[in-house]
Design goal:
Blueprint lengths: L1 E3 L5 H14 L11 H8 L8 E6 L2 E10 L9 E8 L8 H15 L4 E8 L2 H9 L3 E12 L2 E11 L4
Parallel strand pairs: 4-5
Antiparallel strand pairs: 1-2, 2-3, 3-4, 5-7, 6-7
Helix pairs in contact: 1-2
C-alpha cells in the first residue's frame, strides 16, 4: 500500500534512511538522522509536494518524495525525486510502486520534469530509473567522498509529465 507519509512515520523513515547513511554510498550524509530531525525534514512537503511511504504488513518498507530542483521561479515545473527502501525489502516492486505514484501525483500538480540523482555505482537505482523511462543526462566524477573513497554522481531525467 502506498500512502501519504505523516509525522508518525518519521521513526520508521529515519530507520530506513539511516541504513544507507551508515552502510552505503546512496546518500552522502555521514551521521544518522534522528526521528525528530526526519520529522522536521518532512514538514516542508506537508500539503505541497508528495512525500509517500510504502507499507507491507502494516510496516513502512520504503519512502519517496519530491522537492524543488532549484528555488528560481523558472524551475517551478521541475522536481528532484528520491526513493529509499528497507534493505530487506528491495527487489519486490516497492520502489517502482512508490515512484509511479509519485510521478502520477507530480503530473497532477503540473510538474513537467523530474530529476533523480544516483551515487555511482548503484545498479539497482539505475535500473529503477531507466525502467520508468528516465534517461541519464549527466555524470560528475569524484564529487563526493565517503568511506575513504571518491564517488561519482549521475543524474537521470524524465520529462514530458505534462504537455
Amino acid at each position: 500500500m502506498i500512502r501519504d507519509a505523516t509525522p508518525a512515520d518519521a521513526p520508521a523513515i529515519a530507520a530506513v534512511y539511516n541504513h544507507y547513511v551508515e552502510r552505503s554510498i546512496a546518500t552522502f550524509e555521514e551521521v544518522a538522522v534522528s526521528a525528530d530531525e526526519m520529522a522536521r525534514r518532512m514538514e516542508p512537503a506537508q500539503g505541497r509536494t508528495p512525500f509517500l511511504v510504502a507499507e507491507d504488513d502494516a510496516a513502512v518498507v520504503g519512502y519517496a518524495y519530491a522537492c524543488p530542483f532549484n528555488t528560481r521561479a523558472a524551475y517551478r515545473h521541475t522536481r528532484e525525486i528520491t526513493v529509499y527502501l528497507h534493505p530487506e525489502r528491495t527487489g519486490r516492486g516497492h520502489g517502482t510502486a512508490l515512484y509511479r505514484e509519485l510521478l502520477d501525483r507530480l503530473k497532477t500538480q503540473g510538474i513537467h520534469a523530474v530529476i533523480g540523482g544516483v551515487s555511482l555505482p548503484n545498479p539497482a537505482s539505475v535500473a529503477l530509473h531507466e525502467k520508468l523511462g528516465f534517461t541519464k543526462v549527466a555524470e560528475f566524477p569524484e564529487v563526493g567522498r565517503k568511506f575513504d573513497r571518491w564517488i561519482a554522481v549521475g543524474y537521470w531525467q524524465l520529462t514530458g509529465l505534462t504537455d
